[in-house]
What does this fold into?
Amino acid sequence: MPAQSAIVAVLIHDHYNGQQTIRLPAEGFRDLHRSTNESLARMVSEHRQRYPQRPQHDQMHGR
It folds into this structure.
């Protein structure tokens, strides 16, 4: 019989600023973390392609 993996409690925030705790096996937490990091990396990459040069501080504030 395979050994049970450790359970990890994760605090998540929903769109309404609510908080919930979910419990995942350690493997599930690693997969969730990897998926989140990949999504963030993709978003940053697309943003950098769309805006190749960083706007100057004054331009960001309409000055």
Notes: The chain has a mean pLDDT of 79.
